[in-house]
Amino acid sequence: MNTGRRIFVGAVALMGLMVGFLAEEHFRGKWELESWKAQMAAQGEKFTIEGLLMPPPATEDNSFFDLLQAGSQLGANSQVSLMMPPGMRLVMPGKFILATTLIEWEGSQFAGGRNKTTKVTWKFFADELQKIAEPLSEVREALKKPAFDANLDYRMGSIFSCPISRL
């Protein structure tokens, strides 16, 4: 046998060994995965979306839709969100003023098609909150219910997994 033929046979044998190794690893991986899944299923692990879903709460216990409705009524008085006191105001690094110690603060007000800044006091803010007292009490009542479920269909997947062109 000449040298060229020996090299060719050696290369073919080496390629055959590599293909055989990859095929064996491919099937061994599938077999190991199936074995592991069967073992975990025997221990009670769930591998389907239906198996992981909690049973839906009773309609009278679900506060999601009540809270959504009450929250939409809060937006009727948009002035409150513009008058909110700051949580805390930085004075210098490491120093701040708590909102509860403020007597008045800057609030923006939308008037005449442009924003203007006004001084807001606790009395004025309380008067504006009084205008939305009923929706706020509805929010409090909705939050007392034990469940909060939006009835999402988890089988549909995520919007992040679909192509951008479909968004």
Distance between the termini: 65 Å
Radius of gyration: 33 Å
User: What structural category characterises the helix and strand content?
Assistant: alpha+beta
- Describe the global form: elongated
Instruction: Summarize model confidence as the mean pLDDT.
Output: 80
The number of distinct helices, counting runs of at least 4 residues, comes to 6
User: In percent terms, what proportion of residues is strand?
Assistant: 5-15%
Poorly predicted runs of 5 or more residues: none
Outline the biggest β-sheet: 2 strands, antiparallel
What is the helix/strand order?
HHHHEEEEHH
**DSSP, total strands:** 4
Domains (count): 2
Q: Report helical residue fraction.
A: 40-55%
Largest beta sheet: what is the strand line-up?
Answer: 1-2
Keywords, separated by commas or semicolons:
6 helices; alpha+beta; 167 residues; two-stranded antiparallel ribbon; 15% strand; two-stranded antiparallel sheet; single chain
